[in-house]
């Protein structure tokens, strides 16, 4: 194993779905010149792969078949300068749009609750962040993936705000879906994420809480600048 040339910070951003974690984490990474990884995109990629290969039929996950596919999945990231972030690829295909559909959203919590899936992706995520210099967002980054991260942030927002954000995101992609469908999906994911046996969603004891219900991205970054100033002082 190669040594790390310079130890940089590891920043973990956890929280509920549709809270703007990825946008916030991406802004932090750009501010610090760090790598941004959307861990949720990795679970979505596995879900999409499972749907395409018959491990998910009519919203029902065949765990045994899903597990049998894990060694065949090739997940990678490539930096996209046009949006200042990395796109996710499955078997060489860029799938950023495909993994964000409501069909994938409806199944991703069930897929991510499978222990073998989490073990595979957590190992990949830990390898990506071995030398620091990374901002990763997800559900268990500060509790399971990087429990020793120097900065941990847990994000939340009001349900109505989360629904509207998700609605706007899907409509921008041309996907027709009602707010009622979105709220049902978000509530289901919250319940499954918090109740799963392996690495449930929870706030790490040393994580800072950020409720961004009524904050712009710029205001969130002002809050983060304060976090960094406090860290320098201490």
Number of helices: 9
Q: What is the tally of beta strands?
A: 10
Strand order of the largest sheet: 2-8-1-9-10
Low-pLDDT ranges? none
Helix/strand/pairing category:
alpha/beta
Question: What is the overall pLDDT average?
Answer: 92
Shape: globular
Largest sheet: 5 strands, parallel
Query: Per DSSP, what share of the residues sits in E-state strands of 2 or more residues?
Result: 15-25%
CATH superfamily: P-loop containing nucleotide triphosphate hydrolases
- Compressed to H and E, one letter per element, the order equals EHEHEEHEEEHHEHEHHEH
First CA to last CA: what distance? Answer: 32 Å
Give an overview in words.
With 234 residues, this protein is an alpha/beta fold. The protein has a single domain, classed as Rossmann fold (3-Layer(aba) Sandwich). 47% of the residues lie in helices and 18% in strands. The chain is built from nine helices and ten strands. A five-stranded parallel β-sheet has the order 2-8-1-9-10. The chain has a three-stranded antiparallel β-sheet with strand order 5-6-7, covered by helices on one side. A two-stranded antiparallel ribbon has the order 3-4. Helix 2 crosses helix 4, helix 2 (39-52) crosses helix 5 and helix 7 (159-172) packs across helix 8. It is globular.
